[in-house]
């Protein structure tokens, strides 16, 4: 009886697995078609210097507008596509699109803007990443320091030695590196000092509580000091209120992004939004 019970449980488990696998395969083929059908685009979220409000650049965020399902969030489709060959293709498309937008920005008077690009685990360890990046930088006549790759702790800690080597290669090309969602992984602080990163991005989950949670406030305050003392710069993500912004300024956080400054801007609207919100290179403070 025990055996058949086990068998039944196994069959249920197997059915679930098949469903997950099927959805993944289906999603992958839909996504492939979507890329050919121009359903993917980027949204750019402005990043500003906290103390001055100077616009320094943007984070490129992937968007999928499905003709019948509507907007599909990257948080929903990226985990499912992770480790498929298509994810790699999509990741490279993001780099090409981001570099081409950066060139367009320069031609429209927004010179030397920095573009932060999220890199998936598979792309980070793909041997063609450095060459591809180099090629896109040259083709679009960019300075390498205009491109910043955002890596999550999860991408880095699986093989720290290899990660460090890849980071060094990308650094030698002159590109910037940021550790994304800092504080949410399982990594220890000691690994930080061994990584050649330029920016640490403090995760939104800490930022959102700094005005009413003393622990999060202390974590953010001391992370900012520590990171700066180590010679890196800090970006706060997910700034939604003036109170959060003011506290982060007080903590000497270098850069920030979030809904309070601007929501991610769909690429087709970038020109009109920039022309109304940027003056002499500074992001206009929101009307109180
Ligand atoms: P992330 O890199 O940490 O990006 C920040 C996320 O927070 C974005 O969500 C952004 O829209 C959102 N956000 C920004 N400011 C605020 C705010 O003030 N409040 C709130 N509540 N949210 C804010 P999004 O665009 O849905 O992207 C989710 C995640 O998907 C990203 O997290 C990143 O890990 C991944 N992702 C996005 N685009 C790409 C891409 O091109 N390639 C790869 N590999 N991953 C990407
Ligand atoms: Mg990011
Ligand atoms: Mg982030
Ligand atoms: Mg995040």
From TrEMBL:
UniProt superkingdom: Bacteria
EAL domain mapped to chain residues: 24-278
Identification of the protein by name: EAL domain-containing protein
């Amino acid at each position: 009886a025990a055996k058949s019970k086990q068998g039944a449980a196994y069959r249920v488990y197997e059915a679930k697995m098949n469903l997950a696998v099927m959805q993944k395969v289906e999603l992958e083929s839909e996504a492939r078609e979507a890329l050919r059908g121009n359903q993917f685009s980027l949204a750019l979220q402005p990043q500003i210097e906290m103390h001055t409000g100077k616009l320094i650049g943007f984070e490129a965020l992937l968007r999928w507008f499905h003709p019948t399902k509507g907007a599909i969030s990257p948080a929903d489709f990226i985990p499912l596509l992770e480790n498929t060959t298509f994810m790699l293709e999509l990741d490279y498309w993001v780099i090409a699109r981001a570099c081409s937008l950066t060139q367009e920005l320069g031609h429209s008077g927004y010179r030397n803007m920095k573009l932060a690009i999220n890199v998936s685990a598979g792309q980070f360890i793909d041997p063609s990443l450095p060459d591809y990046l180099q090629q896109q930088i040259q083709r679009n006549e960019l300075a390498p320091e205009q491109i910043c790759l955002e890596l999550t702790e999860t991408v880095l800690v699986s093989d720290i030695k290899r990660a460090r080597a890849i980071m060094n290669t990308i650094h030698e090309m002159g590109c910037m590196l940021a550790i994304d969602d800092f504080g949410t992984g399982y990594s220890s602080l000691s690994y930080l000092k061994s990584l050649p990163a330029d920016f640490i991005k403090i995760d939104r989950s800490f930022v959102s509580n700094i005005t009413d949670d003393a622990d999060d406030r202390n974590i953010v305050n001391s992370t900012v000091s520590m990171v700066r003392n180590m010679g890196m710069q800090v970006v706060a993500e997910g700034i939604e209120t003036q109170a959060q912004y003011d506290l982060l300024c007080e903590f000497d956080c270098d850069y920030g992004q979030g809904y309070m400054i601007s929501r991610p801007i769909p690429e087709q609207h970038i020109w009109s939004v920039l022309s109304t919100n940027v003056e002499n290179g500074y992001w206009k403070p929101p009307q109180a």
